Amino acid sequence: xxxxxxxxxxxxxxxxxxxxxxxxxxxxxxxxxxxxxxxxxxxxxxxxxxxxxxxxxxxxxxxxxxxxxxxxxxxxxxxxxxxxxxxxxxxxxxxxxxxxxxxxxxxxxxxxxxxxxxxxxxxxxxxxxxxxxxxxxxxxxxxxxxxxxxxxxxxxxxxxxxxxxxxxxxxxxxxxxxxxxxxxxxxxxxxxxxxxxxxxxxxxxxxxxxxxxxxxxxxxxxxxxxxxxxxxxxxxxxxxxxxxxxxxxxxxxxxxxxxxxxxxxxxxxxxxxxxxxxxxxxxxxxxxxxxxxxxxxxxxxxxxxxxxxxxxxxxxxxxxxxxxxxxxxxxxxxxxxxxxxxxxxxxxxxxxxxxxxxxxxxxxxxxxxxxxxxxxxxxxxxxxxxxxxxxxxxxxxxxxxxxxxxxxxxxxxxxxxxxxxxxxxxxxxxxxxxxxxxxxxxxxxxxxxxxxxxxxxxxxxxxxxxxxxxxxxxxxxxxxxxxxxxxxxxxxxxxxxxxxxxxxxxxxxxx
Length: 511
Fold this sequence. Notes:
The protein is α/β, with parallel strands linked by helices and 511 residues long. Among the domains are: 6-183, 3-Layer(aba) Sandwich (Rossmann fold), CATH 3.40.50; 191-217 and 230-269, no CATH class; 296-403, no CATH class. Helices cover 42% and strands 14% of the residues. Strand 7, helix 6 and strand 8 form a beta-alpha-beta unit. The mean pLDDT is 95.
């Protein structure tokens, strides 16, 4: 139950504010959509009417319910109209001074019981509330885009937020049909604290020549099961928006991964903002999958992480072939072959072939089938090329795995390839946030699954894959790059040490 009956949304002429207003009015609440621009309100009302019509057409709402919903929706460009609201949610420009000024003005207009909520994604709730005159009645209420479709809300308290205010705001989100999770008043809360640095890492990987944007999306979707690749998401939200997020996030955290990548600034300066401008990270180019492949033989030097015992790839091998596939860490150069495929673990291909200051390359092609710890291997094959890798060798490797039904991407011989390079720092962040009390493991996982459509959350996934394995992978990446984001998180260090101790001194109770 909630005592809140009338809600206002400031900034309702924008995409987020318009979506929040739909959540409120669809939940049965009388709702005022406020914006300084009457034109923006008019546009967003048209979008709201279109959304409700689609709901009727799809059988999710009756025509009568749609009419009643629209009847509860009022538009205003005058803050005085918000005087008798029980809850005011701001979704205006992400600027501390602007948000503070709005709440100070609203404090002179609204009744003393009115709760102020901020939809900020990066700023401190305590700072936003500071000086407004009712710091105890201000709460963080971060919706996910598109708000009218996404159920998740990140709820946070400022230092002066009263327990009563937080309970009332929480009860309202549930009454509105949403799913709240509690987080702390820290930069980015849960969602953006994980997402902003991750997206910046993606852009830096492209700038470093690791892989194309298209292949990065394929790798993340196939290897991790994400519904949307990071480059698709960045083009959708707008590269200019990612710049604003980085500019807001970095000064607060001083985390290099949160700082705006140079490539991102250049693309925004060039007007390549993503979907809104028609040009972004994705080029729209795709490569046709191979339908024929050369024969290959297998040389096994040990256990294979990519193709465990009994895998059907073994059945495709022949005794003599133009391509040799080395499994289990072995490698022997053979210039007579079209290609020599080398299975990799955490090492670079150059460990096997040697390097020559950017001139290295031959018919050797590295590969790894992505696998989360001891989970079953995924359907993703990451091929590793060197600067002068033979094109025919790369084509042969791609064809062998594509004909076998795998999703295949190509990347440079850089630490972590695509998936581990990008996802391991995120796991480190999640484990660190758990130590710092940002949120519970369950709420972090819930946030990523509901807010981003992930099949599993970061804590769930890294734990299932094994914290000791995470330690091994991140230690290798940190040793090769020296970048702090790869330094193993405390829980991974402890898990690795515990595993090593157990191997030397077994539990006497278990024998």
